[in-house]
Amino acid sequence: MTVRIGIPRGLFYFKFHPLWETFFTELSAEIIISPPTNRRILDEGIKCSVDEACLPVKIFHGHVQYLKDKSDMIFIPRFTSISQNEYVCPKFGGLPDMIRQSIKELPPVIDTEINLRKNPKQLFKAAAEIGRVIGADDRRAARALKAALAAQAAFEKKQAHSVMSEKSAGIFDAYSRSGERVLKIALIGHAYNIFDSYANMNLLERLAKQGIYAVTLEMLEKKAIDENAETLSKRLFWYYGRQVVGGTLHIASMDDIDGIIYVMSFGCGVDSFSCDLASRLVRRKRDIPFTVLTIDEHSGEAGIETRIEAFADLIRRKRAADENNVSASWQCIYNC
Amino acid sequence: MKITFPHLGNVYIIAKALLDDLGLEYVIPPFNNRSALEIGARYAPELACLPLKITIGNLIQAYDQGADTVLMAGGNGPCRFGYYSVMQKEILKDAGYDMDMIALEAPNGDLREFFRRIKRLSNGKGITQVLKIVKSTVDVAVMTDELEKLCFRLRPREAVKGSVERIYKSFRGKILNVKGSMQIKQLIKDTAEELLSIETDSRLVPYKIGIVGEIYTTIETSSSFNIQEKLGAMGAEVHREVTLSGWIIEHMIKKALHLPRDLRYAAAAKPYLGTMIGGHAEETIGNSIIHANDGFDGIIQIYPFSCMPEIVAQSILPKVESDTGIPIMTLIIDEMTGEAGYLTRVEAFMDLLSRRREGKAYCI
User: Which of B45, B89, B315 sits opposite A102 (nearest CB)?
Assistant: First the structure.
């Protein structure tokens, strides 16, 4: 009988779903993915998590609630580290424990630790361990991982080209056809904030409607991000922290980017430092408009809509005024 | 070079011992008060953890007194503290308080840079002398924490309310007027004698309360409304396993020299929290269990708003509570909290403990 593995559509799902889906499918497991975040999932998540948890973690709780009676096992790996010399964030490291204590009547949880901080090869050990849990021998697991990594690489290559969905692209094309200047804005944030369209209130679509083409971290050259991150006096020890700061500094040297929108979750510890550091360092390098959108479970749509509109407006006016040499002091209202 | 460092409980005593013995010039910021937080909150990012804000306030106050170099501890995450030194340097620079930063760590694993920084601090002294001074400093750390433990033990038992607090407060001020580890050790010994000579009421049986949580808000008690001292006045003997000397010896020295450490808390926490996730989450859970097994009356978890490891610990503590039966209360601190609300909750908690005790008496 095939084992049904529940995969919550939250947190690292947005980054690694081809890897996981391919891996489990290769091992003949049936995968059940929770639906895209909706009102019910968010509410369930808020109800069972501790108040102080950040929005993405609460949403994740909601997804687990959805899956618990529909699957034989739930896949909640313990992500201590996904890159050398870096951690992810304490909540990722303690996630399976948080879930176990907060949600009743859970099926068995696959909570294998992924810790690539000192040894990148640990991934193979972890894959073998997960394979064993669902009854696959180490050789099958290794083969499945190989196929999964190939699928992941293909996905990342596609994302490097553009992250806007076909729907957004459609709105966007219509906009540019009307002749208004299209803006290229860097959209900085964790994958689960950028790509969970319920959590961020359809951000990518809204940006397209304003004639904004979003450039995310996934679309930047990895080498350039690393080189820029190296300029820090002390290495940032969080994966996303380093990506964000390196990415933002790289963007400062990209003349075709008109502005930066930073999307962060209220209460995100890592972002509280990374966002501040990124904005400080980029400001010293270039006078680029920079705004922060903070999302939490209470965000009202009108607020986000207004801020995006105003930001786009500001940039378009600045472009027009720059031709008349007006000072750049307007963006101080919007800089974080 | 005029050195300064942020406040963290009695770390100023330890730093003073070290810097006096090394013969270096330094500035001690004013003892933590509302204004350090107000100043720091103006410049630090809004969602940064409270200790970053207060420490920046300390450093700015020290700058105004002529400091030009900051001495800070380092770290490698995942807790944000490891990056404090960089955030402080950049924030102070932008705010117009540019200071040199000496972080006691090997940045990016660069041991040579670590020794270069130690050399700057050794002020021309040779390695043997520096090691002697470090040993003396660690002794001061241990003795200071023992003194604090003595106060925790005596506060609920004092016959005249406030006697312990008066002596301890005076001690903290007197430290500023002595010089070098020898004189500091002597002052600690004298204060201990003074404390042991106060009148105590042997009829009183204090409640035993374990304090767990984030290191800054539990050691720098002014940041958490001096709750640990006030608990003493309410009849509770406070126990806090996370101490400065503990951190220096277990975390800095033993870890660096690969010596075996006291990891009982990690073993106790294992069924609830699988691994180290940063900060003191493991200690929070492990020590809560150990305290419960030792028959403590209650646990209070204290942490600053948005502290990531403690949020994870907080979500797990209800299970510890239901498994062991020990009452656990969590207090979250940020710059906007009003003292009265906190004290009311602590008083209510003590009421709960007293009713439980009466209940136990009837069950005999």
Answer: B315
